[in-house]
Amino acid sequence: MKPFPAAATTQLEWLQPKTFERYYELHAGGDLVGTLCWERLLSDLATAETAYGTWTLEQIGILNQRVEVRDGATGSLVATYYPKLMGNGVLQFADGRELEWEPTNFWNTNWAFFAATDGQPVALAEGVEHARWRDMFKTQFTVTIDQWRKWSPAELALLAALGLYLIILRQEAAAGAVAATSAAVG
Which terminus of the chain, N or C, has fewer Cβ atoms within 10 Å? Predict the structure, then answer.
């Protein structure tokens, strides 16, 4: 995989190559710069891989849910995401730094990590309008990252992967709620 382009602000695209598969590719122009893949069909364990590192992402707990981010090589805890009631939450790194995960539009289709200290966005994920019918059921997002901020390329790559992971979890939870409601009504 290639590193991110060297620019103050970089736009990347998460693409789902095959509909209904839990595998996603992160592209910068024509270059593959990362992947996010779920380990098993009915699992919350996913692996994110970039030129800057590999991480495992896993939702843990039932009543006290959180997402743990671990270094893929060492297994050490890198960060923990603590969700709040409405889908937003707090990402806390092992060194104590925090970012807020918040929606940026009314419909909660666009999300961003904001610096807890100054409220400025670090990484923004926006849904892609599908121009082709064949892509209508695929999950695709544009990620904008600000590299001028005091975050390493590895941390920015992690934020890009974690943002998509959280969006996918939210989509799956919503689909499950719709299915449960339909079954109860029908």
Answer: C
Task: Decide: 4 and 156 in contact? Cβ < 8 Å.
Answer: yes
**Sequence-separated (6 or more) residues with CB below 8 Å from residue 73:** 53, 54
Q: Does residue 154 lie in a domain region?
A: yes
Rounded distance between C-alpha atoms, residue 123 and residue 145, angstroms: 4
Report residues of the chain scoring pLDDT below 50: none
**Amino acid at the residue 13:** E
What pLDDT, in 10s, does the model give residues 33-54?
999 999 887 889 999 999 999 9
185 domain residue, yes or no: no
Q: What is the CATH number of the domain that holds 35?
A: 2.40.160.200
Task: Round to whole Å and give the CA distance between 101 and 115.
Answer: 9
The DSSP output letter for 34 is: E
